[in-house]
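[Discussion] Sanity-checking designs against the backbone

I'm trying to build intuition for which residues belong where. Below is a structure token string of 129 positions. I'd appreciate it if someone posts a full sequence so I can compare it with mine line by line.
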């Protein structure tokens, strides 16, 4: 299996964008997320508020990320509850949570690959396509 395709905006930021490799019909969702789902663990809801505030400032998350971010926050809440009560948290749970963290650029190494701005949309060389 090959590497995952990078989003166009990330290619532009990294300087690896090539016109012949651009997806001209790539969706461009708004950087606005709905409220946290009611089913998310209470500790996860706290994390939702913190993450959404920080991530929307930089334009890292969009409405398309709703499900993934909700799942991450719910898993975080379950992790916190497990550690507070002394119940063991499965390795599979921690691994899955780590994968979500990497996908959202929430680890030091994954974050170093993202060059987000201050939330302002900058026009790239192929934005008119």
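Best answer:
Here's mine. Compare freely.
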């Amino acid at each position: 299996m090959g590497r995952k395709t990078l989003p166009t905006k990330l290619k532009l930021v990294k300087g690896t964008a090539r016109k012949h490799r651009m997806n001209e019909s790539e969706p461009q969702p708004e950087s606005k997320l709905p409220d946290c789902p009611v089913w998310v663990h209470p500790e996860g809801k706290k994390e939702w508020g913190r993450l959404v505030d920080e991530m929307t400032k930089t334009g890292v998350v969009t409405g398309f990320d709703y499900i993934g971010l909700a799942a991450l926050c719910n898993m975080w809440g379950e992790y916190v509850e497990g550690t507070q009560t002394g119940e063991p948290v499965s390795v599979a749970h921690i691994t899955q949570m780590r994968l979500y963290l990497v996908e959202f650029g929430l680890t030091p190494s994954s974050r170093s690959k993202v060059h987000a701005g201050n939330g302002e949309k900058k026009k790239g060389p192929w934005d008119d396509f």
